[in-house]
Structures are given as structure tokens and as C-alpha cells.
Amino acid sequence: MEKLRFVLVLLTLCLSTSLVKGGDPFLFFEWKVTYGTISTLGVPQQVILINGQFPGPIINGTSNNNIVVNVFNQLDEPFLFTWNGVQQRKNSWQEGTLGTNCPIPPGSNFTYQFQVKDQIGSFYYYPTTALHRAAGGYGGISVHSRALIPIPFDVNPADEFFVLVSDWYTKSHSQLRKLLDSGRSAGRPNGVIINGKSGKGDNKDEPMFTMTPGKTYRYRFCNVGMKDSINVRIQGHIMKLVEIEGSHTVQNMYDSLDVHLGQCMSVLVTADKDPKDYFLVASTRFTKEPHTATATIRYGNGKGAPASLELPKAPIGWAWSLNQFRSFRWNLTASAARPNPQGSYHYGQINITRTIKLVNTAGSVDGKLRYAINGVSHVNPETPIKLAEYYSVADKVFKYDIIKDDYEAPTAKTEEKITLAPNVVNGTYRNFVEIIFENHEKSVQSFHLAGYSFFAVAIEPGKWTAEKRKNYNLLDAVSRNTIQVYPNSWAAIMTTIDNAGLWNLRSNSLERQYLGQQLYFSVLSPKRDLKDEYNMPDNDILCGIIKDMPLPKPYSV
Predict the structure, then answer these.
(1) Domains of the chain (ranges, CATH numbers)
(2) Which residues form the signal peptide (predicted)?
(3) Which of 209, 310, 402, 492 has the fewest CB atoms in 10 Å of its CB?
């Protein structure tokens, strides 16, 4: 019966004029989401499996592929996936956050369909409901260039490996949720895992990756963790950076790389050392007591010679990390998803239409811990914001623009009054916006903007002023979807909000995101035109006050 229903849903989706994307290929997946027990840090605990796997299956596609994923929720709680870094052009219906979608009820299924339109790169998916990400349920997404687009590598990689690094708690997601719901912090994670495992660097683990001498390999790193930045390095090998979150980069060489929360990047590594074992090392950054995990890389014709027990050390301090950020540059001559070079888009010559300053803070409401942006701690309404807009009942669910574009954080002597409410910013379609992130706290922050890539033009210590624009990189800043903000520092990004829909800007810290440090940009098509945005899918799940309302008039061409 489930198979028949799946086929019927696919037929409906593929015949829908609002969702068919020309002659681009379709990739079909069927995922069963269940609980399982795994000892990730040596302690048996409940994790979320996808088709029995942790991490979940890798979605391996090509630019412009249509991805169809039928998700069967076999958990005891409602569930959603988001596709971190996939821009969902004109299609925020597939975004999979609680602001855009009703969750999949237990025992039910939902079919996502989206296109990786004009994108290449390294991304990942994860659950957005009920702190489920703390139990796993995540996996990698690799999007390759089409055959007609030249790849700017000296040599084609013999193979590629996804490396999902994460800090990890030994408490279950439900235990962590109880802590946060009671007004307390989840505390520090208990360790680090690499692709769901935590090697101890003692040569007792089976190899996770195998390389043939003389060959070059692509490693795609993503920090899918919950709290910490993670530094990655490979014993005895240099890494050539080639891509960050969908953009080809200038190919600089690095001994190690800081991968902040939510970030992805890929490197080329050549197997040009003695044929033996080597450790891939991942360790937390900016923590008093760093956690470290290893994975074994084995040369294919090696004689099983063990890796050296002396692990390469991580750098110290965030000044090193800031300098590394400044060394990342957009490859202006390389083509990404389209034939034209990346550098043909001159973002530095576009006039800024709007400047929005976002200040992250921590505080309390009624004695319970909350996190805020510009004094507002986001609360998800029972009716998803996107559905409320589509059914023209937004005024019954939330208010637009309850935060100011220019916010001044309270002084140390003044306690910030935090407001609990849905945090929705009205964005004007096709405006070119500058967003400033200001971090007055003592820890590194990381933010993701869904629906877009943006140019990360600057990160500097201190407070931002308009005079700081003279220090922006207006030529070859990397186009990406996450940005870190160091303690008592600011970061500036620029983007054109030309993707109609509802888009989440969120802290990549799971605790902060769960306790309100996020908002939504509502970017509405003024014409309600199918050229700008797709209609609500026929299979969309309905909930809240719109559940029994008649369908609105659909968008038309």
C-alpha cells in the first residue's frame, strides 16, 4: 500500500505544471526514519537512523537535478528535514522548517521535491524538529557540475569522501530538550564524532577511507554539530581548498582548516606519502578542554603500518581563524553551475538598498534562558508563517517587522528586555541588502541564511560603523550561506533577495536556535506570479488555523 501511495504521489508531482523543471533528470529516494541504538562515544544511546544508517545516505547529484525524497516518519514525534545550503529557488515550500512546513506526523509520510537549480557544491540535510538533530538524522549532499562545465582542478579526483564532523552529547535528544524547556543550558558536548564514530587515535579502528598512492581525492567537510567550531587536518598531508558551500575558491594550501558550525568546504588531497595509515583529526576549537576524534586513512597497497600516535596539533586562538577567513577568495575565472565565470557577477558595484544590523544576545524570560536577535526571541506559531501568508491570514498569526534594522545592544549595566514572538522581517523583492552581524558575547557565533548565497565581505573586531565599509572585500569575497562572528566582533554580508518565499536566518548553534535565535525573511512576489514563486504543492501538510480553510486562488503566469 505504501509503495502504491508513493507512486501516486510521484505521478502527481511530476505532472504538476508548477513543479516540472524542463528536461532535467530526476533522482528518487525513499527514506524510513527510525530510532536505533549506537555507541557513538562508547555509551549506548538512542539515535535517529535513515534506512538503518547513521549518518544517513548521501544525496549525490548534479546541478539542476530534481530531487524527490519520500520520507516515512516511523518515530513517535512529528518530524521535518531541511536541506542546508540548497537554495530552493522559488520553492520555500520544500525548506522543511517550522516556519514553512507543518511537520510529518508519526506513522505518516511526506514527499519532498526540489531542484538544485544552478548550484554545485557541498551541503547537508538534518532534522529541524524537537532537537532531533542531537540524535543524528543528518547526511551529506554533493552537487557536481554538469559535464559541459569545466572543473578548475589540475587533476580529476579518483574518488571523493564526505566527512561529517560534529560535537556530540551522551544525553538523548529528549533529555537535552527537557533541559532547555526547563530554562537551563544543555552544557558542553561530551565529545566529537566523524561520520558517526569517534576514533581515539590508537590504531584500533578499521580504516574509514582508502587512498591509492599517487592518486588525488576530494574530501567534503561539513560541521553538522551543535555548539562548537571544529578544526580538521590530515596527518602528514596538505589540503588544497577548492570549494566553500557552492563556490569554487582560489586554491590555497592549508595544514588545517577551521570549519565553523553549519559550514561546508571541500579540499583535494594527494596520496603522495609513504604507503601506511594516517589519521584524519577533528578537534573542537575555542574550548577550555578540546575534544578530539580521529578517523583512519589507509593507503591501498600499504602493508598495514600503523599511523603515528603523534597527532598534528590544532591552532590556538581566534585571531588565527580570522586570518584564515581572510585568506579565502572566490575563484573569479572558474565556472560553477553555469558556463560564465563566477567573477562576471560584480557584486561590489551594486548600490546597497537596505542595511540591517542584527545583534545576538542571551538573556532570560520569566527566569528561563532565551536567546534573541535584536531583542526578539523567535517562537514558532502553531500555523507555519508561510501557510499563514499563502492563505492571507498572516494578521491572525504574527506581525511583520517587530525588530528594527538598526539595533543597539544594551550596555553591560542594563538588562535587555527580550520579547517572545514570531520574528518576521519583510524583505522587498530584488533589493540588494547588507546584513551586519554584531556579536557582543564571549563565544564564536555562526549564522546561516536559507534561500540565498551571500558575499561574506568582512569580519573585524569591535563594533560596526558605516566607515568600516572601506575595509570590505568588494572583488572576490566567497559567495556562501554561513558566516561566523568572533567574540566582540562583527561580520558583514551582501546579497540580492531575489528568491521569493519565506527564508530562515538562524543561529547554527542548536541550543540558541531552539531557544529563539532565529528569524524569517518574508520575500513576497508583488505579482503573485508563477515566474517568481511556485504554488503550494498538492501534497503539502496542513495544520493550524488554515487546516480546514478553502484553498486560495493559485498563482498564475
Answers:
(1) 26-144 (2.60.40.420), 159-327 (2.60.40.420), 347-523 (2.60.40.420)
(2) 1-22
(3) 310
